[in-house]
Amino acid sequence: MQRLLKAYPDFLDSADRNNLYWKDGTVMVYDDGITDKTHDEKLEDPDLEDMLSQEYTAGPDWSEPPAENFEPGRIRYEPFFLKMYGNSSGEVSQHLESITWVDGSELAFSNVNGAADKLRLVIKELNELPSEYQKYLKNPGGTFVWRNIAGTDRLSNHSFGTALDINTKYSDYWKWNKNLKYVNRIPIEIVEIFEKYGFIWGGKWYHYDTMHFEFRPELITSVP
Predict the structure, then answer these.
(1) CA-CA distances (angstroms) from residue 96 to 81, 143, 144?
(2) H or E element in which residue 122 lies
(3) pLDDT (tens digit, 9 = 90+) per residue, 161-218?
(4) CA distances from 17 to 1, 2, 28, 93, 133 (A)
(5) Distance between CA 57 and CA 211 in Å, rounded?
(6) What is the distance between the alpha carbons of residues 204 and 135, in angstroms, rounded to a whole number?
(7) pLDDT tens digits, one per residue of 34-53
(8) What secondary structure letter does DSSP report for 82?
(9) In angstroms, rounded to a whole number, what is the distance separating the alpha carbons of residues 100 and 107?
């Protein structure tokens, strides 16, 4: 829970053994006491403890391909994000800023928790990469759209304006490929820049999604 407090100081006040206290007085239980959940059960009905149960490894020294069902960040306790970023498309939209992407296109991104400012820092460093990296970045797949993850009743983090898909032409997604044999074409240099500013990468998931980056500073070992 200390990671949550460190990552989201604008909203969170304190924690004790099994409760997270928000600054507005809201209390969220950390561990619901249900043990031996399957991975699918953690995805469908998680608590905060489930959300943080897998350690995200930033940088190039990670286990590739990911082990079966190892995908830190894919388990999300939805009430946590609804409370911070907005409980509807309209509420989220009130906090969106227009950000100029590396190819000059405009993207909408949430300013909650400083996410938009962090993305601007990412863009600054992406612009400094050699030209051969730019093909992976131009024509981004998008940011904010209030929607469920395909085939589920779970909201995508795109719903909160805190996720970004880069160029789909050079990306791989397990559902598109119709199998879980790991494939990736995104250079680690791009990934490391995102990670430096609190973003995780879907390319480090067993159910891989290599175009996908989302602002999840609680999962990055060293938050800048």
Answers:
(1) 15, 10, 9
(2) helix 115-126
(3) 999 999 999 999 999 999 999 999 999 999 999 999 999 999 999 999 999 999 999 9
(4) 9, 11, 12, 35, 45
(5) 18
(6) 21
(7) 999 999 999 999 999 999 99
(8) H
(9) 6
pTM over 0.90: yes
Q: Where are the beta strands (DSSP E) in the chain?
A: 12-15, 19-22, 27-29, 96-100, 106-110, 163-165, 199-201, 212-215
Q: Which of 77, 190, 197 is nearest to 126 (CA)?
A: 190
Tokens 């206290």 belong to residue:
21
CB count in 10 Å sphere of residue 80: 21
Which tokens belong to 198?
A: 């609190």
DSSP 189-207: HHHHHHHHTTEEEGGGSSS
Domain ranges of the chain: 2-56+64-219
Q: How far apart are CA 69 and CA 140, in angstroms?
A: 27
Give the full edge-to-edge strand order of the sheet including 212-215.
Answer: 163-165, 212-215, 199-201
Contact (CB, 8 A) for 87 and 97: no
In degrees, rounded to 5, the angle at the alpha carbon of residue 210 between the alpha carbons of residues 204 and 211 is 140
